Amino acid sequence: MSSGSTTDTQLVIITGMSGAGKTVAIQSFEDLGFFCVDNLPPTLLPKFLELMKESGTKMNKVALGMDLRGREFFDSLFKALDELAETSWVAPQVLFLDADDSTLVRRYKETRRSHPLAPSGLPLEGIQLERELLEELKGRAQLIYKTTDMKPKELREKILEEFSVNKKTIFTVNVMSFGFKHGIPIDADLVFDVRFLPNPHYIDHMRPKTGLDEDVSTYVLKWNETTKFLEKVTDLLSFMLPHYKREGKAQLVIAIGCTGGQHRSVALAEHIAKFFEKDYHTRVTHRDIDKRKGHTT
Description:
By secondary structure, the chain is of the alpha/beta class. The protein has ten helices and nine strands. The chain has helices at 22-31, 45-55, 71-84, 101-111, 123-133, 135-140, 152-163, 214-221, 224-246, 264-276, and strands at 10-16, 35-37, 61-65, 91-98, 143-146, 172-179, 190-193, 251-258, 281-286. The strands form two sheets. Strands 2-3-1-4-5 form a five-stranded parallel sheet. Strands 7-8-6-9 form a four-stranded parallel sheet. Helix 1 (22-31) crosses helix 7 (152-163), helix 4 packs across helix 5 and helix 8 crosses helix 10.
């Protein structure tokens, strides 16, 4: 890991100027598998650290988003950080997000939000007050990201590069089988309809089985049109997946649908997931494999 922690437990405290990208940062740490808590009051940090220590490996990657707008908050945070400096079980890092005043003013105008330190005044007044309050904390940060010229995608990539242990597993390809008669998955990014392929449902001994059974899978895959479909779809996905990854997506859901989601879509989802597992972190799920209420699959 490039951020230099010497322990197995990672604790990142995300703070900085309001409007500098904390929400994007929290989402990026979630994509990396961190347990994330946003807007945790610093006074609760000691109790939270106790939970982390007691949980063992269950909470060994934690990112905490903190807005620090009161003196008592700073005192409790600095005290906790000083105490942690004497321990060996965790090495906390403070990630401070910053941007110049004009950029922050522009972002507040675009979102039409008021600054939390100047709810009824000008955004610049709140920004300048917050910058003054955060000066000491910024000086204690191990990492400072200036987001003035960063797009959200670029901030995300910077965090992934800094904190990922295994960069090959950041982007996950989820291949899902489903049945159209049960509805199209709402979380699908790409949907392929394979109802044009020969249907094992009409072969009596295959009807109660699924695409996970070898004879059903062999039947689905043996047809010339299946071979051509797989050649075309894997070629298309081989082109698209690197571009989705480059654009910063953490995962892509590829849905393969037949009528009932038990035979054709299952066999093809398994085949496609296996095809890409050498280059990507892949997961395969079969949403409707146990739904046998209809007459055609």
